[in-house]
Amino acid sequence: MEVSIQEQGSFDRILTVRIPSQRVDQLLDGKVKELAAAAHIPGFRRGKAPLSMVASRFGSELARETAEELIEATLPDAIVQNNLRPVARPAVQIGPVLRGQDFTYSAALQIFPDFLPTGCKGIPLLRLVPQHQESEVEEVLQNIREEHATYESTPGHAAQTGDRIVADIDFFVDGEPRPEGNIHNYTVELKSGVINPEIESQLLGCVSGEARTITTTLPADFHDLNLSGKTAEYRCRVTDVQQRLLAELDDALAVKMGIQEGGLEKLKEIIRERTREQGDNLAKDNFKQQILLSLANANPIEVPSQMVELDLAGLVDREKQERKRQGREKEPLDEAQLRRTLTPLAVERTRLGLIIGALSRQEGIAPTEEAVEERLNALTAPYGDQGEGIKTWLRQQPERMEEIRGEVLEQAVLQWVEANGSVTEESIAFDKLYERAMAIQQSLRLPAAPAAPAIAAAE
After folding, report:
1. In whole angstroms, how far apart are CA 269 and each of 138, 272, 278, 454, 455?
2. Rounded distance between C-alpha atoms, residue 249 and residue 254, angstroms
3. Element (H, E) at 146
4. What percent of the chain shows pLDDT beyond 90?
5. 416 with 337, same domain?
6. How far is CA 425 from its chain centroid?
7. 164 and 187: one domain?
8. Domain span at residue 197?
């Protein structure tokens, strides 16, 4: 067997493998004899047809099977002997299989980058320690009051932000009536950002029974493009103003949030606990992102396109599954645009995965079975009595277990970087911590941090 390698760029390789004719003929002869013993050819008893007739009649099938067997027997050795680490299964192109001639095939593949990570020791790291204020609890309580607000018709009340008005609206463009745009008994919530700010500002202060004309310029993306940029009038006859009444801050509100015992004080306690939990998670995530960003900046390596494509396919599939979970699978999806959006994320994830893998090999870091078991326990703990069954099922899923071991390996590498880094601590307010988390994630082009600071108050 002769092997030659053609390099095409940083990662692309083409292996050309030539197998001597003697080996080809030997394999062909054996296959012809096997086929002749079993083939049924008209005019001959089974196994009695001439070998030359069998070879002629089943030539294409014999050639295909011979090529497949030769490739299966030689390609792995060719890859190993040349110290190649393929990213994915090679794409093989075969030449003709002919008696008395060498058999040649080529295999196109991409290899993993071969590099030694640098800048992994002595990294200055800042551990942020969240400091919580009672104002955070008050902010969440205010959000809860707004979510449970009621609306009450109030004659003579001047509409304010957050109130609702009910109106009959006639639509005019450049002074001409446009009946197709008329709306009757229309409810508008005066909540900043819900409707056009220019329209909202002109509705503030109106009272029930008032007639008010709102003038605006129709936007460029107005649904009827023929009207874009023209002056529009919404002639409103306000029939009702409904004042928003925030929910009372009392034990009854706690019951609405699912708290049956302990009342308002229990609600506040739960909010404090979840605020602390969210702060701790944000701080841990921020610390992790610092390490990843430092490793990425110190090792700006190229990444194989096949690896990026594999990760991108997973991200796209995850987005589709999320849309399905939300009941949005029938909504139009521009997959090409989605891929463009997710590609930078896939590149960064791939780069970091390669750096972590190289660092683990360089420093002899490996996931222990105890750590893998701890991770399995953490994943299955929320399922209670069903946890053991789920854990057994996970162990039977090779791909999922590989992902779990990858997560454990990443954690082990991060712990090594921390142990070999220079760590200082700094106290920080919760809202500032969230801003830091968002900034570093944008630097890495990783998914956004959890929303802050509103927290679901109760189960």
Report:
1. 12, 5, 14, 15, 13
2. 8
3. helix 134-147
4. 60
5. yes
6. 31
7. yes
8. 150-245
